[in-house]
Fold RNA-directed DNA polymerase.
Amino acid sequence: MTSRRNKSYPIHQCALYKLRTKKKLFELLQTTPTKLKELREAPKLYHPIKVAKKDGTYRDVLAPRGDLKRIQKRVGELLLRVQTPDYLMAPVRGRSNIDNAVRHRGARSFHLLDVADFYPSCSANKVAAFYGKTLGCPPDVVKILLELTTLNGTLPPGSPASPSLAFWAYQDMWDEIAEISEAAGCTLTVYVDDITISGHLVPGEVVYGIKERLKHHGHSFKEQKEAAQIDGAIEATGVILTPSGKVALPNTQHQSMHQLRTEVQRMPEGPEKELKASSLRGREINLRRILQQNRG
């Protein structure tokens, strides 16, 4: 049963759809013209930080200041309520990296692609087209939405609105990629910027076609992250898929959990310990979900 929080609606029922006035926009985003003026005049709205990934590496993001982040989160929340295609696994409520991997369970052949510099490659012009053409917002509303959710002509990595906007602004590209995969009898999933294609065989022309569509829309892929496998285990979105149909965590994640557990045990009480403990709990929940998939 779908929870109310995970319930989704057609895009024409989105609260942003055909939002005609700036006044209604400010009300919907729970902000004011005064706050917008303040944000426009602020010398710095973002600061760079490094965010730890599950594999132990870090990614660079631009963290918005608190008041801007709250507005961006509101935009993101409204878009998360919109129905998405079946191939999209994130950003989608109720779906996880485990669900993404499980979708390919039982396949013989896999091909993985990772879009390079995804958010910085997402054009503000495409975002504007989504606000204006897809959602039907007038130019003055589009202008404000762009100011609040883009930076220097692209989507800022670190904004709570960027994951959903990156999909919707490029839905035409993703749909074209889905058509290429479906025509070859392959299964496609998209997890933000991770592309997984599977089937009894993933033809080379399918992979070539997907890369061509990425290039056509201004994106590229990370050659060092490209992976292919036939009749063997492969890691997709942080989950190992085995030929027997089982799923498992990579050894690096088990090692990371062990290290976190040791650090938490040794740390004195305080905010830093609670932060690490929270991270550990999340990883342990992930492990339990994987074990449940195998039991199922």
